[in-house]
Amino acid sequence: MSRKVLVLGEVRDGSLRNVSFEAIAAGKTVAEGGEVVGVLIGDSVQNLGKDMIQYGADRVVVVEDGNLKNYSSDGFSQAFLAVVHSENPDGIIFGHTALGKDLAPKIASKLDAGLISDATIVEAAGEHVVFTRPIYSGKAFEKKIITDGIIFATIRPNNISPLEKDESRTGDVQTIQAEIKDLRTIIKEVIRKASEGVDLSEAKVIVSGGRGVKSAEGFKSLKELADVLGGAVGASRGACDAGYCDYSLQIGQTGKVVTPDLYIACGISGAIQHLAGMSNSKVIVAINKDPEANIFNVADYGIVGDLFEVVPLLTEEFKKLKV
Ligand code: FAD
């Protein structure tokens, strides 16, 4: 059963976030041989259309307006709904990012559509599309289908592999007009917290520290290991509460949910609330001096030892591999 599926391309600092390409791959599954239409919203984003096409979109629809320079629920929902009304899709896919989590429910309610959020697997099964999503903070998974109306879902970053980039692919990139008006919130300026390196939610490698790291100073050796591996630094709430690092690094039930290829937990006990944010990582390495620590129950590889000895040794060894 072929369908037309809209996929939102998420733009940050002038480039598409990786989750946009993962969403195109999910959109292809939902489309089942039908058409995947990329959607770009912003004030100057048309040039990114070719990237969506090279990653598998068949064509791209662009809405540009000065009022769309920065994200707002009002502005982006008006723009996206204009595309929905002109395209009349059978499916919609967003990334399950801060933007997607804000925008998707608003669009779904306007369209009177069901919404499956935070899907980690998308599969075509007969006449339905089956979405797998975590429940109970990741302790179990449920499979869901939408039986009536638009198939609308958000997908968790780093779970669905994007298609291989094909630079020979071409497709139409078309701008449509949408009236963006009556905005209740206008973002004048975005002031970013100074943060360096890889974005935590899209990092392939995360080196995460807990209360066992003992100080902000202690996090420096984790940062060195992360840098050698091309990864990002994360933290438990214990470490954030103790003031060792910023809450923006917190991983878990009340922090970020991450699914990197490699998660190295250093001095983290493995409380259920922490596991909720990282237990779906592809490979988990735990370093803890307590052999009974719960983190070892989810780890693929465990190192019982003092992180202040183990982490610098790992950094040295990985540096040798890079030479
Ligand atoms: P601890 O539990 O104190 O563990 C420190 C570990 O370090 C110990 O296992 C110890 O053996 C080890 N260690 C000490 N020294 C060394 C060393 N030199 N070398 C190696 N290992 C060492 N927590 C989160 O992380 N994320 C959340 O989103 C979150 N949300 C929560 C929401 C609610 C509603 C509640 C109630 C709690 C939440 N928590 C969350 C807190 C959670 O319950 C734990 O308190 C927290 O995860 C513990 O952090 P920790 O593992 O760093 O510290």
UniProtKB/TrEMBL annotation:
<feature type="binding site">
    <location>
        <position position="211"/>
    </location>
    <ligand>
        <name>FAD</name>
    </ligand>
</feature>
<dbReference type="InterPro" id="IPR014731">
    <property type="entry name" value="ETF_asu_C"/>
</dbReference>
<dbReference type="InterPro" id="IPR014730">
    <property type="entry name" value="ETF_a/b_N"/>
</dbReference>
<protein>
    <submittedName>
        <fullName>Electron transfer flavoprotein subunit alpha</fullName>
    </submittedName>
</protein>
<keyword id="KW-0285">Flavoprotein</keyword>
<dbReference type="InterPro" id="IPR033947">
    <property type="entry name" value="ETF_alpha_N"/>
</dbReference>
<dbReference type="InterPro" id="IPR018206">
    <property type="entry name" value="ETF_asu_C_CS"/>
</dbReference>
<keyword id="KW-0249">Electron transport</keyword>
<dbReference type="InterPro" id="IPR029035">
    <property type="entry name" value="DHS-like_NAD/FAD-binding_dom"/>
</dbReference>
<feature type="binding site">
    <location>
        <begin position="250"/>
        <end position="254"/>
    </location>
    <ligand>
        <name>FAD</name>
    </ligand>
</feature>
<feature type="binding site">
    <location>
        <begin position="236"/>
        <end position="237"/>
    </location>
    <ligand>
        <name>FAD</name>
    </ligand>
</feature>
<keyword id="KW-0813">Transport</keyword>
<feature type="binding site">
    <location>
        <begin position="267"/>
        <end position="274"/>
    </location>
    <ligand>
        <name>FAD</name>
    </ligand>
</feature>
<dbReference type="Pfam" id="PF00766">
    <property type="entry name" value="ETF_alpha"/>
</dbReference>
<dbReference type="GO" id="GO:0050660">
    <property type="term" value="F:flavin adenine dinucleotide binding"/>
</dbReference>
<feature type="domain" description="Electron transfer flavoprotein alpha/beta-subunit N-terminal">
    <location>
        <begin position="5"/>
        <end position="195"/>
    </location>
</feature>
<dbReference type="Pfam" id="PF01012">
    <property type="entry name" value="ETF"/>
</dbReference>
<feature type="binding site">
    <location>
        <position position="288"/>
    </location>
    <ligand>
        <name>FAD</name>
    </ligand>
</feature>
<keyword id="KW-0274">FAD</keyword>
<dbReference type="GO" id="GO:0009055">
    <property type="term" value="F:electron transfer activity"/>
</dbReference>
<dbReference type="GO" id="GO:0033539">
    <property type="term" value="P:fatty acid beta-oxidation using acyl-CoA dehydrogenase"/>
</dbReference>
<comment type="similarity">
    <text>Belongs to the ETF alpha-subunit/FixB family.</text>
</comment>
<dbReference type="InterPro" id="IPR001308">
    <property type="entry name" value="ETF_a/FixB"/>
</dbReference>
<dbReference type="InterPro" id="IPR014729">
    <property type="entry name" value="Rossmann-like_a/b/a_fold"/>
</dbReference>
